[in-house]
Amino acid sequence: MSMPVEVIMIEDDPGHARLIEKNIRRAGVNNVIRHFESGTAALRYLQTEEVRNNGPLLVLLDLNLPDMSGTDILERIKADEKLRKAPVVVLTTTDDQREIQRCYALGCNVYITKPVEYETFAQAIRQLGLFLSIMQVPEPI
Question: At CA 23, angle to CA 22 and CA 26, rounded to 5?
Fold first, then answer.
């Protein structure tokens, strides 16, 4: 039996966070969404044993945070043996091609520039959630 996908939203702007969650809910995605306004708080949560040893995650990541760079967070998630499988959707106002390429090189799965067409965004989240809910990744031997 698979565990439900937990959505981790790292977004410092409360207005953007509400809008993202509202549109995800409107699209019919009912998964738990944990919102963090700082990278420090999000990483602290992600590094707990409870999170690292439980069900699948989907991370929505803003790059422009007050306490640290979103690319630093992405790098740390993808360097962690237990977290690296989590899909990361970068959702940010930064549309610099070098930054986009860097995020993909670090392992992000989708890069979306705000403002975004939220139905397209919600559909991408639904598809990633469905994929995670049916996929069982074998542990390394």
Answer: 90
pTM of this prediction exceeds 0.90: no
Region of residue 118 (phi > 0: left; psi between -120 and 50: alpha; otherwise: beta):
alpha
Number of neighbours of residue 20 by Cβ within 10 angstroms: 25
Angle between helical axes of 14-26 and 118-134 (0-180°, round to 10): 70
10-49 pLDDT per residue, tens: 999 998 899 888 877 777 778 889 999 999 999 999 999 8
What CATH number labels 6-134?
Answer: 3.40.50.2300
Pairing of strands 57-61, 6-10: parallel
What are the sequence ranges of the domains in the chain? 6-134
